[in-house]
Every structure is written in structure tokens, then in C-alpha cells.
Amino acid sequence: LVANGADVNWKNEKNSIGFMCACYNNHIETVKYLMTIDRINVNLVNDYGGSGFYYACLNGKNETVQILLDDARVDLMLSDKNYNWSPLMNAAFNGRTEIVKRILCASAWRRIDVMQKSTNGKTAIDIAIKNNNIEIVVMFQEYCTNQKETAKKYC
Fold first, then answer.
1. Which element (helix H / strand E) includes 44?
2. C-alpha pair distances (Å), 104 with each of 67, 75, 111, 140, 154
3. Dist. CA 46–CA 82, nearest whole Å
4. Cα angle 150-64-33, degrees, rounded to a multiple of 5
5. Backbone angles phi, psi at 101, to 5 degrees
6. Residue 1 clears pLDDT 70, i.e. is over it
7. Mean pLDDT, to the nearest integer, of 55-61?
8. CB atoms closer than 10 angstroms to residue 118
């Protein structure tokens, strides 16, 4: 279908595209393939503001997250429309320690605002504290103390 010109950015009734679904469901080979197509928009969001990266982080899809972190086209700061939660906030909320590590590592070469605030003024650190995700809280504290060294530590 793609070879015959199918619209890889076609949206369904909720404005989701196949790429988002592949990220959401950890279909790694599909994610890799779709990312080779020049016309794919890896930053399209659905009605809720979720992108492929957002859903990979939300659902704890470590390998998909890494593939997306390694691609400079992927906007790591796209946030949902309801609460302005970033992918990092979702990872912190859900106790996705490995994903938080990977995002902090990527901050060495990618623009990531770990202090981004949600609509109610909370950061990813606040969210991790509220949910008692201690290991993630410690990672954030280390990162805020020495960003470069902590980023290297998690790479």
C-alpha cells in the first residue's frame, strides 16, 4: 500500500494515525519501517494531543521509546491537550523507570525540559513524588544536581 502511495499520515475518527498505533502497541518493525518513509509525520497528535512518542512512554514500550529518542524528527516535548502532560510526566506517573532513564540520557543531545509544568503547575518530579516512585524521584534529584553527569550515567 505504501509503495503505491497510501497516505501514511491518514487519521481515523479520533485523529490517530497508524504510526501512533504502532508505537502504542510496540510494533517495533512497523515503527522502524514507517520511520523510513520520508512523508511520515512522526509528530502528528490525535484528539487528545498524544503522539507516537507520548503513547510509547505512557505504555512502557522501552524499545519503541529508544527508537524514537534516536530520531531527531521526533518532538519529545509534545504534551497532551487536557493537562499538558509530557511523555516524561507519563513515564514518571506510571513508574516507568527505564523510560525515564532513557529520556534523561537523551537529554545530553536532545531538548528536553524536565521542569515543564502541567496545567496544574506540577512537574514530572512532583508527579513521581506524589505516586511514591522513589527510584524516579532519586533520578530526577541527581539530574537536577548535575545534568551532564546524570545523563551520561543513564546512557
1. none
2. 15, 15, 10, 9, 7
3. 12
4. 135
5. -60, -45
6. no
7. 95
8. 18
